[in-house]
# Entry
Amino acid sequence: MFPIRDHNPSKGTPFVTWALITLNVVVFGLTVPWGGHPGTLWEYWALYPAAVTHGVYLHGLVTHMFLHAGLLHLAGNMLFLWIFGDNLEEHLGHLGFGAFYLLGGLAAAFAQIAADPGSGVPMVGASGAIAAVMGGYLLLFPRARVDVLFIFIIFFRIFPVPAWLVLGVWLGIQVLNGSTAGITDGVAYWAHAGGFGAGVLMTIPVWLKHGGTAYWGRTHGRPSHPGKEYTRTNIPVVRRRR
# Structure
């Protein structure tokens, strides 16, 4: 189950969302380990929980958000930011969304440090900050429709699914894997969960300002502007040949 788009493109231009995507791509191009071994900039800008615990390399709390370990890592994170970032930016404003993103990334970093303060394994990726965006999206737009790619044994199919289900399943996977796998598989699950939780908490004042549950009643749990409908003709169904 993999989200590929939502049905609620923002009315305005999400300048900060696009700027963040561009910045992540540029930094990836400058720091990607083309030869298979991390470069000097990548190693220096990564986040090391043990170092932060001892009060050194604190810049990594911010710089790690713009580093990625590979092309798929980058592409997956930027896809999620593109899907969920524009509506939240429209709701919070450009500057508010930028601050929200950075604070969410910091919260995610501290959550991972709290889970494994002695780790010397470098932590990189925008997923903690993007998880915060997802948490805010869930609170404001729980019933927004998100197209999800399901991969079955013999074919691929895209289905519209409510955001609360997509994001709830994603969060459950992070908590489950964080509780069982820890960091043994190299994924910072608690950064994801911590960022998501921070996103929900930071969005609560905005949600309450708009009326809380009454806001859901007025908007039906979706962005206030009309959604976009996709027809079956532009939703590909790909079947494998025998």
